[in-house]
Design a protein that fits this description.
mainly alpha; 123 residues
Length: 123
């Protein structure tokens, strides 16, 4: 049982070392950087334009929907490349083909749902 917990001790030691290096780097940068705040440095900077009005603005949800759809298709592409290599291996042909069609059916069902809800119309 000691060997079992020894492997967790190694992981915990590496995690502690990583946190210590990260905290040390942040502390060193805080101690070594110059700190001279001026009113110009403390103002909000947005693309060279002086901020006017309040900081709250309403954004359209369609931008997020298109972003989510992009992520879905990017994940789909990430799964298609390894599938293509396993598909050629002997003994995996029909199984991987069925699995990929089930996966693509879920993706297609999501796209169909978004299309039926008129999420994909850009007006």
């Amino acid at each position: 049982m000691n060997e079992y917990f020894a492997s967790y001790a190694v992981v915990a030691a590496l995690l502690a070392a990583g946190v210590a290096v990260f905290a040390g780097a942040l502390l060193a940068s805080r101690l070594l950087r110059p700190d001279r705040p001026t009113p110009e440095k403390l103002t909000t900077y947005e693309c060279g334009v002086d901020p006017v009005g309040e900081g709250w603005a309403q954004s359209q949800i369609r931008y997020y929907v298109y972003t989510y759809l992009y992520v879905v298709f990017a994940v789909d592409a990430v799964f298609l490349f390894p599938w293509a290599t396993v598909f050629a291996a002997p003994g995996f042909g029909m199984t991987t083909l069925v699995e990929m069609f089930v996966f693509l059916a879920f993706i297609g069902l999501g796209i169909l749902y978004a299309w039926r809800k008129r999420v994909l119309t850009w007006t």
